[in-house]
Each structure stands twice: as C-alpha cells, then as structure tokens.
Amino acid sequence: MNEVNKTLYIPLYGKSFVSRQGIILQDTKAEEIWNKEGFELKGKSKSKWLAYNMAMRAKVFDDWTESMTAQNPEAIVIHIGCGLDSRCFRVKRNYKLWLDCDLPDVIAVRKQYFKETPNYHMAELDATDTDAVKGLPDADAAVIVLEGISMYLSNDRLKSLLKTLKDKYPKLNVLMDVYTEFGAKATKYKNPINDVGVTEVHGVDDIGKLLEGTGVRVVKEHSFTPDHLVSRLKNSERRFFKLMFREKTYSRLYRLYELEGQ
Question: How many angstroms separate the CA atoms of 255 and 224, rounded?
Fold first, then answer.
C-alpha cells in the first residue's frame, strides 16, 4: 500500500483498541483484522488518547448514518474511502444498498475479510476520477460517508467530487470531516499520519466558498467528541481527554460538517 492508504490502519487500531475494552463501540471485525493485518505503530499513532478520538469519530459517523437510513429508507449508502472499516456491520438499521469504495489495493485486502451480499457490495474507486464517480449505482437518494478522506484531496478535487455526487443524486446527504488550513499545516509537526509516511494534506477554512456552485449546502456542524461518548471513559481518563480535545481548540484544527443537496 502507498502511504495514504496506510493511514487506514490508524483508525482501525483505534476501533480495535476500544472494542477490546468494551467502550464507545463494539467492533469485533476491527479486532479480527487488526490481529492479522496490524503492524507496529509509532509515536502518536499508538496513543490510547488518539484511539479514543478515532473511535468517537467513528461512532458519530455510525449514528449519523443510522439516522439517515431511518429517515431515507430508499436511499443507498456509499462509503467513499472505506478502508477496512466495518460500519456496514455496526449500523444496525436495514439499508437498501451499501457500497464500500476505495482504491484497488485497499479493496483487495478488504475482500479477504468482507463478503458481498445482495445488498452489500465493494467497489474500486478513485475519488478524483469524475467518470468513475458518475458510474456509481443510480438512485433517487444517497447517503454519502466521507470519513478521513477529504484531507487527501485538493480543494478543487473535493469540490468536484461533491458536485459530481450532487449532479448524480437528486437527494444527497453527506457527512464529511475536514482539516482547517491551520490543521493541515500543523500535520507537518504533530499528526500521527506522519508516522506512516504521509506528508501532504489539504485544509478547508471557508466551507461555504468550497461548496459554491456544487448544489450542496451545510446543514450543521457536528462534534467529534460529544459528551455522551466522552462520558464512557473512566473518570481520570475523561478529565485528561477533555483537556486534550477541548472543543474550541480542536475546532481550530478539524471540523465535521453535515451537508445536503436536494
């Protein structure tokens, strides 16, 4: 795998770590894959605080996806940049169709652990390839999960991806995390993705400007570390975690936007 694809092991480790402890989320598939595919993480990548943060982010995405499928039972779910994530198992609500997409070498590993069913499929997809995105399954409505991918796309490519998705799907719901420009610059010094060799990422300061001309708008901004998830940590860990990931400070680096197009 190239350096960007290796970043998928950081959240995989986090989900495996908390699942073994029985907190935040249950993900036996992450435990299984990490036991077989995981490697020695270095520096901040193996921090339990980052593991908690990654697991909380995943849980927020899980809950949002479950809510969207409840509101739009006919919508298809498309996870672009799925890595080795098992959200398709963690989301308990029935869905019409779920498609997990990533680059070919990631999907090759993924197919060793996940099996396709009539309503679950995997597909090779380069998010920068407009024609490939246009070739995604047709539907009147789509729920799009963009977790941990926007920072590897330039603003122009991210904008093109969102516009292409909106042009394809009359009703579109998206959850997307982004670095701020300050956060992207800070990755050169303090980001765990450096531990797997990634040196170039992109940030978004003006989400409104990015979305101009796409037909997509911001619905709301979500927290990565909501109180109901932080409260699942032990008392001593909870206090320190809150200091590390204080909302006002964290939001200078990293944001989570719910988007809509219809």
Answer: 8
C-alpha torsion sign, points 209, 213, 219, 221: negative
pTM of the model: 0.91
Q: Quote the tokens at residue 238.
A: 């909870």
What is the spatial distance between Cα 214 and Cα 172, in angstroms, rounded to a whole number? Answer: 12
The 3-class secondary structure across 9-53, one letter per residue, is HHHHHHHHHHHHHCCCCCCHHHHHHHHHHCCCCCHHHHCHHHHHH
Strand partners, 141: 171
Enumerate domains of the chain plus CATH numbers.
56-261 (3.40.50.150)
- For the segment 153-173, what is each residue's pLDDT rounded down to a tens digit? 999 999 999 999 999 999 999
- Whole-number average pLDDT of the chain: 89
**What order of strands is seen across the sheet that includes strand 141-146?**
120-124, 98-102, 76-80, 141-146, 171-179, 254-261, 217-222
